[in-house]
Amino acid sequence: MFESQSAACVVQIVATWIASAVIVAAQETPVPHPFATPEEGPSLSPMPEGSVTPTLEQTPSVSPTRTVRISFVPPPLEGTISLGIYDKNGKLVRVLHQESELNEFTIGSDALVTQWDGKNESGEDLPPGKYRARGYLVGHLKVEDLGPAASPASENNATASVKVKLMPNPLANEKQSIVAVGVGFDSDGSYLKTIDDLPLLTVSEAPNLVHMVIAKNNDRSVTIWQDDGTAVHRFRVSNVDKMMAFDCGEFELK
């Protein structure tokens, strides 16, 4: 849909989308510096790649606090945001946001803002070096509970992951993006994730899961089997193509 729009139209879409979200956020929690409306200031323009601004803040403690400020313009699509921090080898070292709503970010003058403390998932300080922040805006995917499995997953070509074509992000000037997605689980339930373990969408809140697999039905739908050791349950997730990838750029952690 977005491929046919001009660059100016894309910018206006993003500006309108974020400005609308700011109005909602302002009604819930006052924001010191809201976005300017089209009458008050210039239109929003896409942030260039590499829009991550590292900042170091000295504290009275022995070592300084390592705080990285990350700002980005989200893709023009309604939904939730999952954002991860990756090391120079492309390994996910921290899930910074999982299925986050717009109001969970700080609203900057022309972008959304979040922060990273330089730690991994275990709360340990990561070594200095180059890192990257990137993620996905996940649209309105539909999860359906299909009940107990009528046939084994092995008979339905189920695997650990499948490839999904995403909607092109017009702010990244890309034509098509493909991502490998799989399924994961923890004590809170099951979820759709990227192959590098960034959670994208909650599938169920079932406890005590021991195994999961996924199969692709078509370009817009996948079927998921989850096993708790006593029974196998099936779910269908539709509109899996309604996602856009975005990249906040590379930065250096001191």
Could you explain how this protein is built, in words?
The chain has 254 residues and is mostly beta strands. It folds into two domains: 2-138, no CATH class; 142-244, no CATH class. The chain is 9% helix and 46% strand. It has one helix and 16 strands. The chain has a four-stranded antiparallel sheet with strand order 1-2-6-5, with no helix packed on it. 30% of the residues are buried.
List its traits.
254 residues, mainly beta, four-stranded antiparallel sheet, disordered N terminus
Give the count of helical stretches: 1
The residue ranges in which pLDDT falls below 50 over 5 or more consecutive positions are 1-51, 53-63
Could you report the average pLDDT, rounded to the nearest whole number?
81
Count of distinct structural domains: 2
Strand fraction:
over 45%
Provide the gyration radius in Å.
20 Å
Extended strand count: 16
Helix and strand sequence: HEEEEEEEEEEEEEEEE
Secondary-structure-based class equals: mainly beta
Largest sheet geometry: 4 strands, antiparallel
Morphology call: globular
Indicate the percent of residues in helices. Answer: under 10%
Distance between the termini: 41 Å
Strand order of the largest sheet: 1-2-6-5
What is the element layout, followed by pairings?
Blueprint lengths: L6 H22 L23 E6 L7 E8 L7 E8 L4 E9 L5 E2 L4 E5 L12 E10 L3 E7 L12 E6 L10 E10 L2 E6 L4 E6 L6 E8 L2 E7 L4 E7 L4 E11 L1
Antiparallel strand pairs: 1-2, 2-6, 3-4, 3-7, 5-6, 7-16, 8-15, 9-10, 10-11, 11-12, 13-14, 14-15
